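Discussion board: Methods & Data

I've been asked by a reviewer to show the raw model output for two of the constructs in my manuscript, not just the figures. I'm not sure how much to include, so I'm pasting the format here to get opinions. Each protein appears as its amino acid sequence followed by a line of discrete structure tokens. Is this the kind of thing reviewers expect to see in a supplement, or should I convert it first? Here is construct A:
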Amino acid sequence: MFRKLNIFAFFICFCELVKGECDVVTKKQWGGLEPTHVQYLPRPVDLVIIQHTATPMCTTDKACKNRVKNIQDYHMDTLNWWDIGSSFYVGGNGKVYEGAGWLHVGAHTYGYNKRSIGISFIGNYETDVPTAQQLNAVKALLGCGVENGHLTSNYHVIGHKQLLATLSPGRNLWAEIRTWPEWMDDVSSIKN
């Protein structure tokens, strides 16, 4: 009986490792490189910055993995960053891909990286429309982040353009996130 329980416990742990925390596709699963250097993010954080990649959207597992790999290659090889910029990427297939993740400081919003999580929707949401699968995946990710102590229970969601001069997250995604209960309209209290 004890042996069966051990095997069952191992199976449960193995399944958790394979799918990644919070159902995130891990770097290993999408073929990402390890960072060249890391800085740890003090947690829990209370700020989530939503942005878009301003690239073509992806809708299949293969296309989304390739898109995230291309983003990481650009960030590391061309910009000489330590890693891919955002904490997480969300494909049109409804899957969340690990970027810098929950634990490491990202490179998504200059001046705010050391105190926030950056979530990038893959696509250009000036014209693309976020899918229900993407929105549900991000909401589940955020809930899991609170549950696992990565985010405070009273975290705020803001758009990238509230902090920097950019079109990101794009008008269609902007219209959506402004309806979320965690939305923070006035960022004057957190602005650098």
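Construct B, same format:
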Amino acid sequence: MTLQGRTALVTGSSKGLGRAILLRLAGQGANVVVNYSRDENAAAEVQAAAEALGVRAITVAADVSQLDGIQKVFDATIAAFGRIDIVVANAGMEKVNVAVTDVTEEDFDLLFRVNTKGPYFVLREAARRIADNGRIVTISSNTTTVPQLGVGLYGTSKVATGYLARVLALELGPRGVTVNTVVPGPIDGAGIFTDPANDEYKQSLVAMVPIGRLGTTEDVAAVVAFLTSDDAGLITGQQLVADGGMH
């Protein structure tokens, strides 16, 4: 599953799941773009880790929930590498353990800007700029398929991008571009589960997983790597669930 000579842009890739995805693609030979919004030191560390794998890497500070930030990261990618072959729309924000009755308008606007508007326009820009036979992958959440207490807002904000990916797969199919969505379950060591205060909540979710553990960032990165490979050339418009059987 070599990605030698290809260029991969992973939004929100300075830490957590995005970091794991980016380093997995780099490990398979892709030149990579580390996108971050605030943590410059973390982005620099990921860049160094990618370069240690023998590929070229750049960092781009850009808020990809805003259209100018999206434009900036795509412009920087083209300027540095001349092409984009892989786009992973990963950047997002979690908000759980909040009842529907407690959600504020500010909560709603923020989650939908980061989890819905941002990925929508990342995919729009990817559709305009990606090379023929490229790969687009969006990262969703199994809260869109498994109703749970306290995830009404978060799950709703993650639904739209998976649907958009299915439509975009139809539009880009004639160019050989595939568009798919990965739907992870809870991920140990990422997002809210980097905070020990959420350990009790984590254990309650483990009890819901048939295989008896939460996923890891590496588990999900492996799924993304498959979908961006030549081996997945016939897979498009799909939502691939990786949640240990919770769905």
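Answer (T.O., handling editor elsewhere):
This is acceptable in a supplement if you add a one-line summary per construct. For B, something like: The chain has a mean pLDDT of 94.
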